[in-house]
Design goal:
This protein is 9% helix and 29% strand. It is mainly β.
Length: 258
């Protein structure tokens, strides 16, 4: 083998190694920033028009499936398909820290999900340790972040309303700690070809207290594991995350998109 052949072989091997590493690490939607890059510009706080008072729970559309109406957890289950240890108090379900996430008993694909949530009124912790939870689709693969980001600095792609680790919200319309916030999330599940390759990515739109903060964002893979897409079922459970904080939820409903 001559010198040029050796050089070409070495280059080919280096290229193969580079391609392998790229397949193992999920691509980021904005190549200028890494995951949770603290140099990334953070969302500006704005005052949302939708009030966060106790008596302003929204009314579900007549064709929606009610997932939580403040009275019971009949539509939900805990980890390992066991009864959830989350509690119901004053018409809201509250995360019991350390009990694990809570999951819908039924599975869902493309949908419009409405969730109202409130971080603890007593502020404890900072950064990602303050009022942390999340709404996760397709069996905990794709997350819309919940966090108390009222006068609380953290990395941009971890703000409330972020598509965690990928897209920061365009603005930060959060209410004060203890007040109610609401998400309207349009989730389009990814599709896969018969050979398991990706046909179309997951797409997410989020309105946060009536303010559009994510518009038809194409996810680059799992926001939880930071891995590229792996084939999975179209319809899977939705979950609310236990991240060690007693975040409350109310008025949860879903409309499936056909």
């Amino acid at each position: 083998m001559n010198l040029f052949s050796k050089i070409n072989l070495a280059a080919a091997l280096a290229c193969a190694v580079s391609l392998l590493s790229l397949t193992q690490i999920q691509a980021q939607p904005d190549p200028k920033y890494g995951i949770h890059d603290r140099s990334r510009p953070t969302p500006q706080h704005i005052e949302a028009g939708y009030p966060g008072t106790q008596d302003m729970a929204g009314k579900a559309p007549s064709d929606a499936t009610i997932l939580f109406d403040g009275t019971n957890l009949d539509k939900w289950v805990g980890s390992n398909n066991q009864p959830s240890k989350w509690i119901i108090k004053d018409g809201a379900m509250e995360c019991t820290p350390g009990s694990g996430s809570i999951y819908t008993k039924d599975s869902y694909g493309d949908c419009h999900l409405h969730v109202e949530w409130a971080s603890p009124a007593k502020v404890e912790g900072s950064d990602q340790g303050r009022g942390n939870s999340g709404v996760l689709f397709s069996a905990e693969r794709y997350e819309v972040q919940i966090l108390d980001t009222y006068n609380n600095s953290t990395y941009a792609d971890g703000y409330a309303g972020a598509l965690y680790g990928q897209y920061p919200p365009s603005v930060n319309p959060i209410h004060k700690p203890g007040e109610w916030n609401n998400y309207d999330i349009i989730y389009i599940a990814p599709r896969f070809n018969e050979d398991g390759s990706l046909k179309s990515p997951a797409r997410v739109t989020v309105l946060f207290n009536g303010v559009l903060v994510q518009w038809d964002r194409k996810l680059t893979g799992s926001t939880v594991t930071n891995e590229p897409y792996k084939q999975h079922d179209l319809r899977l459970p939705i979950s609310l995350q236990d991240h060690g904080n007693p975040v409350r939820f109310r008025n949860i409903w879903i409309r499936e998109i056909n």
